[in-house]
Amino acid sequence: MSSYRYRFVGYEKLPSGLNADDVQLHCRLPAHLIGAIQGSNYGKRYYLGLAVQLAFVALTGRNPDGKLRMPPEMLRMLCGQLNISTTAIASLKALYQNADRTLANHRAWVQQTLELSDFDASAQARLQAALSQQALDAASVDEICVSAEQWLFDNKIIMPGKRVVQDLARSAFKAVEELALATIRTAVTPVRLRAVLVVMHEESVTPGVTVLEWLKQSAGKHSLKALKEVNSRIDALKALGVHLWNLQELSIGRIHAFAQAVVNRPPSETARRVEDTRSVEIVCFLKHLLGELTDEAIFRNNRHTSDIIGSGTKRVQAKQAQRASHYRDSIESMRALAQNTDMDAEERLAAILVLAEGVLSLPPVSRAEVVRETLTEQTTRVRTILNGMSSLDLQADPAHEDSKLLGALQALQAAGAKELPADFDTSLVEPKWRPLLEVPDRAAALRAFEGCTLWRIRKGLIGGSLYVNHSATYKSKESLLIPQEEWDRNKQALCEAYGLELDPRRALDLQYELLRAGLADVEIGLEKGLLEIDEDGSVRIPAIRALEEEPELQRTNRFLSETIGTTQLPDIILEIDSRTQISMSLLGRQPETAEELVALYAGLLAHGTEIDAKAAASMIPGVPVSHVSAAMRMLEAPGRLRSANDSVVEFQQRFPIVKLWSDGTKASSDMMALEATRHLSIARTDPRRKTAAAGIYTHILGSYPVIFDQPIVLMTRQDAPAVHGIDAYNSNSEDRIKVDLLAVDTHGYTYSGMSVAKLLKFDLCPQLAGLPDCKLWVPRSIKIPEALEKVVIPAITEKAIREGWDQTMRLIASIKSGRVSVAWALARHGSAAAGDDVRRCLDQFGRLLRSVFLCDYFTNDVFRREIHTLLNRGESVHQLQRAIYYGRVTAERGRRRDELKSISGAHALLTNMVIAWNTMKLQETVERLKSGGQRVEDNLLRRIGPVHFGHINFRGVMSFSVHRYAGVLLRSQTPEKRVRAG
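Above: the chain's sequence. Below: its structure in token form.
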């Protein structure tokens, strides 16, 4: 739902500081309502009173009070619409000259005209039912109040008084707390619960630190010591029995909200809470923490395993160099033998042949073989990781081969084996590992088995064949997807509801038709010289040439920038907030005071830039560090930064100039490396800068705003975050324009990613590195033109698509129903899930989709340029993002997942604020120039984006002139208080 529609919902009075633009956008009455006023029988003297009530009720959903004072700009505009004289009368009561009966009659007429119903017992019952569902995931009573007002507004019910709504919200929130308490008392015995509450405030293994403080601490950098710390916390939680607590009656969002309450306050304050509240919050905190710590342990285990594999990969080059040296020595020996006159010719030839046989019999240096050797030799690291996994309770499907391998490892560990038994069943491991297990040295065989098992566990956890029930992410596939029985019973209805094709034959026929047409276009393109295919089967297409520089474009760009002038970041934040009410989204309510608002801005800056809470307090006079820290913790509440970002994006999209840049249906996505300390667990070395960095993955509309952001790990495939971001954006609102094309680079796509994107109703379009070597995958049933035989591989297996299609539709329906995320789906069906039916279906279908895409890419230069332009615009936004966050993430920040998300979200919000402000100023400047008779060509404006930042001061002492916007941003205050606050 559009944030603009809800901007003033529930307000008891409109801000007095509304400017002309806001009044035109929000308060202007449509023609049919103006006609209704003029066609009423109440007389011209009451036109303005009727118009004010209509505008106010339509905007807020609430009947105006008789003492209501209207913004002057609103009165001026309504008078203009009604063709009546402008008046200085500001209150509704003055307009009606104390005619209370007439005011009441007009109120009833307004309600009837807008087709609104009264808030009666039936409406209250419906609202209570809706709030009962909303409260399951709400973080506070304020959020439920906002949801209640929006529900009443959507259902065209006149809002009751604020106190009535607040009482209903408190009642719903209390009901969830009571449900949580009842669930916890069922899951945890009273004796255990009391013991847990006592233990939380006892001294931990670290002297002077309570158990609760110790559990809240984040693990340090990527090291085996830090991994042991994570495992020790998991063991401590399992000792309390947390993994056995069944809290399924509570939603994940509700558990997270209760957990955040503990995270965001000092342990001493938690200890002062009443026992019932403390019980609910502590139990939810421990349950949520166990899931996060388990995910963290698995992430670190997999990364350490990858490090061992990576070290083996580095040894390949050294071994190849060593082998090359050996070859050279052998050749020199052969030459010496050939020149040895002490031997006759036959003896020399025989000796040379013996030497050659020895060299030729050496096996080639294989990367996989060297990795296996490394996993066998790194005994200490391998065993440390495996021993730490005892806290994870790894499980597997009994029918899967990984189950037997895991059982064998656990049996050897339980027996304390130092050697691999001579009768060990080597069929449990892959054939290439078996020679390492069948050697006479049984201790070496055990080391090889442990290395093989570690490699298989990593692969199994990523691919989903192994799982951990107390994990938040690595649970079993079957427990997360739509239950198989439910799918078999309802799949026809589910596919119709979600727009999925249950018959694979029909889906394939459509793509085959597109592929045949695409192959024909490629053949025609060859004849016309649009592309070439060389003898090696490489495709050559003309490079995209940059457009010629136009002096007029440069002059226009420079003139617009000079006309807009310079500004300060605080002024941008205040002005955008006054237009979008992001402070209300971030707080969950309207700010009370200027001090609270400025502290919120300081917290946003501390998250979204390189400064910390202390530096933010130093840069913004009068804000205590404690207030900044509290604001930073508050911003970690789920959904708040995302909601604020959506509001700013929607604000930017309403300007006409945006339509020149894009129609809103196309976007790009890419990762920006954010420099970070090496002590951050997700930090990896950026291959370009050679420094530790964390990844921020952003989705950027063709009209420049950041529509989705998420932190990711460098050097990992980016198909999952790419597809996940667009699905989240498209499914978040029915009102917005949906993205149907996403441009990515090579890292942002896989065959599975293209399949999932297509099934979610948008196209993943990669700009591929190594494009000349890309082949067209086709099924054998497609006739291949003779001219294309060198670039076509007829190897798509239609059988794999048909066999896996039903379960693939189950997976997509599970995504659509919110059971699993796209990121989870692609992570569990990537290369680590080789052999899985769904994985094979997605892979083969994705190859078909890529061939269809490449046919267009090879022959349509406009299409190629469009993808290139989208990616370039994304890069220009990254330049702005680096100007906002030019430093690095320090060791004290970003260790928790919620904090990383807040850093990413706040950074995106500040970026969007600058883009929205630039867009607004460009629009105002262009309109002012056009009204003055100066002509600005649309084809020039189309190439002038809103991402310039040289005119903005991002640093130094920051002063927020809140008094200029107090009437719009702050809750009702006396004028004296507003001036004093500013």
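The chain has 42 helices and 14 strands.
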